[in-house]
């Protein structure tokens, strides 16, 4: 089946640093989404991207939909302690009505 | 509006026992999804309901898993008999429409089979 390769698997960074993570696929998608999961909670949608090449921001978060439609990245600028959690990318292909998720990037922020 | 509610939040059962997970979607959301995350791996699709009908159950691991959504409201996912490899976090999600607009997820049920 389809798989998304998400990297890195985990990151330890200092508060104030910028963070970058990405997802790649062997298949194309119509939509890329980025979710964050806090401990004990379900994933929460951060950003949705609908067009190849699209660059979208949500506060300190910026995500891009790759030109080839097979990849996406998420950047977090000036990280703060509450950025801690697991970040998941997800790809969606029209007509399938389900998302393919990456394995997640666990982010830890050191104050 | 109330979010997606899942019960229980945690369950520890012995191999061979039966467990039933429940999900209450956001009121008015016709689409309900079950996903599962085994530790360290991706969140994997199990199945999709539109109202009370199963739209896609291609992700169900085997016939030990049974999902129902009677009346098109809440849904249950029963595992019978449970095996060790069934351990993981089971997420339910709902959305008002199909398509790539994002779901609202519940907090999940952490199932541990010992």
Polypeptide structure, described:
The complex is a heterodimer of chains A (111) and B (114). The termini of chain A are far apart. Chain A has strands at 4-7, 10-14, 19-25, 31-37, 44-49, 55-58, 61-65, 71-76, 85-92, 99-101, 105-110. The model of chain A has no long low-confidence stretch (mean pLDDT 94). Chain A is mainly β. Chain A is globular and about 45 Å long. In chain A, the strands form two sheets. In chain A, strands 2, 4, 5, 9, 10 and 11 form a six-stranded mixed sheet that branches. With 114 residues, chain B is mainly beta. In chain B, the strands form two sheets. In chain B, strands 2, 4, 5, 6, 9, 10 and 11 form a seven-stranded mixed sheet that branches. The mean pLDDT of chain B is 94. Classes of the chains: A mainly beta (111), B mainly beta (114). At the A-B interface, strand 4, strand 5, strand 9 and strand 10 of A face strand 4, strand 5 and strand 10 of B.
Low-confidence stretches of chain B: none
The count of helical stretches of chain B stands at 0
Overall pLDDT score of chain A:
94
Supply Rg of chain A: 13 Å
Give the termini separation of chain B: 37 Å
> What would the principal axes of the Cα set say about the shape of chain B?
globular
Low-pLDDT segments, ≥5 res of chain A? none
Number-wise, the strands of chain A total: 11
Proportion of beta-strand residues of chain B = over 45%
């Amino acid at each position: 089946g389809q798989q998304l390769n998400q990297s890195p698997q985990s990151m330890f960074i200092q508060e104030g640093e910028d963070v970058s993570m990405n997802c790649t696929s062997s298949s194309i998608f119509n939509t890329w989404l980025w979710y964050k999961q806090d401990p004990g909670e379900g994933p929460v949608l951060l950003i949705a991207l609908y067009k190849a090449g699209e660059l979208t921001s949500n506060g300190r978060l910026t995500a891009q939909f790759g030109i080839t439609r097979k990849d996406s990245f998420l950047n977090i600028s000036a990280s703060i302690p509450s950025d801690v959690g697991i970040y998941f990318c997800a790809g969606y292909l029209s007509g399938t009505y389900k998302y393919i998720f990456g394995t997640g990037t666990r982010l830890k922020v050191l104050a | 509006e109330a979010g997606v509610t899942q019960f229980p939040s945690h369950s520890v059962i012995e191999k061979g026992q039966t467990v039933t997970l429940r999900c209450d979607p956001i009121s008015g959301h016709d689409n309900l999804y079950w996903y599962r995350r085994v530790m360290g791996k991706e969140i994997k699709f199990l199945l999709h309901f539109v109202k009370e009908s199963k739209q896609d159950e291609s992700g169900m691991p085997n016939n030990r898993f049974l999902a129902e959504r009677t009346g098109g409201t809440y849904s249950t996912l029963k595992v019978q008999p449970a095996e060790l490899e069934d351990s993981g976090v089971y997420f339910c999600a709902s959305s008002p429409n199909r398509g790539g607009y994002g779901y609202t997820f519940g907090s999940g049920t952490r199932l541990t089979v010992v």
